[in-house]
Amino acid sequence: MSGEEHLGEDLAAYVGLAEPLAPERFDRHTRHLETCAECRLAVRETQELSLALDATPLAPSADFDRKLFERLDAIDASARIESRREWWQSLLRPSRIALALGPVAAGLLWFLASRPRATDEPLPADSSSALAALDDLELGANLELYGDLDAAEYLDVAEDLDLLLAEEGEAG
Amino acid sequence: MVAEAADDDARLMARFVATRERSVFEGLFRRHRDRMVAYAGRYVRERAKAEELAQEIFVKVYTTKSYEAQGSFTSWLYRVATNVCLNELRRPEHRQRFTAYEEQAGHTTPESVLIERELSERLDRALAQLPDKQRAAFIMARMDGLRHDEIAAALSTTVPAVKSLIHRALVSLRDAATQASATEDPKAPKEVST
Ligand SMILES: [Zn+2]
Question: Does the ipTM surpass 0.85?
């Protein structure tokens, strides 16, 4: 760059409105200003502008931190609820349910086998802990709670269980 | 752009995202809180709104799920902050952004101060009318003293583009300022809204 070149895009930096220029570049512009009225005017106007722009920065109020940390606590709390929800969801995946229901089904089978033969009779809901556990599953309510669970797969498991019970009833 | 080495805060941010240690976040927060409040205050002049935006910025930081520790944390933070502030300004209800800080209200104001404030409000208005990137680059350079390369990273652009953005912003603001001084009658300063 020659000494005759105008300040151009270095203007902001020259008056301290942007990242400082390298010293030799700054000096070259200073020499240029001695000979260029146009750049002198630009520098003066920009310096005035810079002063007018000098509004005091807004400082945070005293309760700024407290408000933020309350929000962050709320975020953490809802994240904990979410992770618990995910845990339950993973528990309710069909493969897990099948595993979990294994002992329940066995209990039921034992219960049915030890009863007098009366397969048409509906099972009393409160007659065994195994049945109570089944009631707790409350299919409909769970499906609502765990909205994104694959409902069809879940129902398959329940149907399989019904089938198993029915077959066992006939065979027994 | 070549990947830069992460600065200290960038490494801390990466650690926070990995471990969720609140104390790590708090360190970052305390170092950058004031400048974020001030930065938001350059977009919305109303204190309550500016603080809300600053809170939003830190909530975004806090809930960041993935963060690559490279370059300047400050640049990344300003990118988050600029997005938050510009999103806010795009909201249709955002039309009264030129009210002065309440600290300035109620003081006895000599005429010279009123004239000064008139000019400063004109400049605020001119600043608000700049294209988004020009305004963001100018604020970061002028008010926050960021280096050109930091601004470039924050705005996902190059250093020469940043210099050009700042220059164009400056030209527009200078026009606004010189027009203001040409049309102003110092004997009859306009009522200043507070
Ligand atoms: Zn010149």
Answer: no
